[in-house]
Write a structure and sequence with these properties.
Order of helices and strands: HEEEHEEEHEHHEHHHEEEHEHEHEHHHHH
Radius of gyration: 21 Å
Distance between the termini: 27 Å
Number of strands: 14
Strand order of the largest sheet: 3-4-7-8-9-12-13-14
Bound molecules: flavin mononucleotide, iron/sulfur cluster
Helix content: 25-40%
């Protein structure tokens, strides 16, 4: 497999020829006008079809308050020109749910700061684009579950729903490690409801009850072997979610609810002898991948479709589709040419991963067209992001195109596309993965290679130095 860099595919013909030669199917529109069309959701007009995906920065204070770095990022989300802000970043509903000691936390103490954060985003949008009545802003609510690391960056404090044979081994969870009890889950449901009440006070249009990336909400969906009312049957595995929704309705009436869903998952991948990612071996039927076909690397959307239909039955329309987890199979979630320091070389052309996400999103939209579907994982497309995005929207394969990393390297990317400006090549995210590597090394996240601001931070030197040491080691 010879992967060609996207920057080397200089014309639309070259790009499409490369796709054909490699049997990669992606939508494509010559013109990007489809992205400039408004969208109606529950009586509200959302001004265009770009969404900013949640992006945390490992840069809050140790008690969960935003810092200037967080404020800068949220202001950039407002400056992006996208009219749907999906979640801002993961906000833990309580302290033990943080994925790192510097995660944003939503509680009574941080409420004013989070209110100001949203206001800053909206005000920045207004300053740049003159209006905000056509902007929808949500807050992503999370408990990090198996990947909780709330106090010390070097010490995970997992909260697990069941013993997962591969992930327990990979992340050193002993066989006698306690599993969350049903009572503890009921208490956590209350924390989500309280967090939603606070998010409503802070002015958010919706909350995202995060069900992706291996965190707790996502783990419920694969808890097939868990006994009791939160495991086993599909009904039981989605009970946590239903209880949160039922609690939110009377407590925070009128707030929108969305879900970011890992709609398919694979077994964990590891670095093979040649440095490339390869699936960890598992004998027999693999039941722990929600949206998997039992082989560990195949997709079966029956249950994800059931979940989406359940959302509809609960009056929920907003869904953002993503996949897998950055901790154990990042290539299916954030396709990259250059892996983060703790990962593996791409096991496939990252365009294959991008196309997989886009086509599965399309399949789900086709099956449940009543939903408002936001796609993910477009940043790897680089120069061709606008055309593929416009193709997806024009074909009805997604209602919104969400991107994450590109907003870190090129905050005004959406505005430039929507205004027909020539893209600024030196700001296009090249998937160097430093924004993932830095937090893996205990540093703040940001676009160190392309954002001058981050190059000026002391963390930049630490990052370069740690990367060299890791390479030598
Ligand atoms: C630095 C970084 C932080 C992220 N933080 C979050 C997060 O807080 N919540 C979430 O759901 N996804 C998070 N993601 C995943 C992104 O939202 C997105 O799904 C992923 O980067 C793929 O989209 P892209 O190709 O446009 O970057 C993060 C990704 C990166 C690189
Ligand atoms: S560090 Fe910058 S260029 Fe690299 S993946 Fe992140 S946003 Fe993209």
């Amino acid at each position: 497999m010879k992967i060609r860099r996207i920057a080397a595919l200089k014309t639309a013909d070259e790009f499409q020829k490369y796709l054909r030669e490699n049997n990669i199917a992606l939508p494509f529109a010559e013109k990007t006008a489809a992205l400039n069309t408004p969208y109606q959701l529950n009586g509200k007009t959302i001004g265009n079809r770009f969404a900013i995906l949640p992006m945390e920065g490992w840069d809050c204070t140790l008690d969960g308050h935003p810092t200037d770095l967080v404020r800068r990022r949220w202001a950039n989300f407002g400056r992006s020109g996208a009219k749907l802000i999906w979640g801002g970043e993961a906000a833990a509903v309580r302290m033990d749910g943080r994925a790192n000691p510097h995660q944003l936390v939503i509680n009574a103490d941080t409420l004013q700061d989070i209110t100001d954060l949203r206001q800053l985003l909206v005000a920045t949008h207004k300053e740049n684009y003159g209006r905000t009545d056509d902007v929808l802003v949500g807050l992503q609510l999370t408990h990090s579950g198996r990947f909780a690391c709330p106090h010390d960056i070097n010490k995970r404090e997992p909260v697990i729903l069941y013993h997962h044979p591969l992930l327990d081994k990979k992340f050193g969870i002993p066989a006698d490690y306690p599993v969350m009890t049903d009572d503890e889950i009921s208490r956590l449901v209350q924390d989500y409801i309280r967090a939603t009440e606070l998010a409503q006070k802070a002015g958010f249009d919706f909350v995202d009850i995060k069900h992706c990336h291996g965190y707790l909400g996502h783990e419920f969906l694969s808890a097939v072997e868990r006994p009791g009312k939160y495991g086993g049957s599909f009904e039981n595995r989605t009970r946590f979610f239903s209880e949160i929704v039922q609690g939110i309705r009377p407590q925070a009436p009128g707030i929108g609810i969305g879900v970011r869903l890992s709609a398919f998952d694979f077994v964990p991948f590891q670095r093979g002898a040649d440095g490339k990612g390869e699936p960890v071996k598992y004998d027999g039927y693999y039941p722990y991948a929600f949206g998997g076909d039992g082989t560990g690397t195949g997709i079966e959307l029956t249950e994800p479709v059931l979940f989406l239909k359940k959302l509809l039955s609960l009056g929920i329309k907003l869904v953002c589709i993503t996949a897998g987890s950055p901790y154990y199979n990042p290539h299916i979630q954030r396709p990259a040419l250059f892996p983060p320091v703790d990962a593996y070389q791409p096991p496939e052309d990252p365009l294959v991963g991008t196309a997989r996400l886009i086509s599965m999103t399309a399949a789900l939209k086709k099956t449940v067209p009543e939903l408002t579907i936001v796609g993910s994982g477009y940043s790897y497309l680089q120069e061709w992001l606008p055309n593929v995005a416009a193709g997806a929207v024009a074909n009805g394969e997604a209602d919104f195109v969400g991107y994450g990393r590109m907003v870190l390297s090129y905050p005004e990317f959406a505005a430039d596309v929507l205004n027909g400006k020539t893209l600024k090549k030196n700001k296009i995210c090249r998937t160097f993965s430093d924004c993932t590597t830095a937090p893996r090394l205990g540093l703040v996240s940001g676009c160190f290679p392309l954002d001058e601001y981050y190059r000026g931070l002391p963390d930049y030197e630490c990052l370069e130095c740690s990367k060299q040491q890791t390479k030598k080691g």
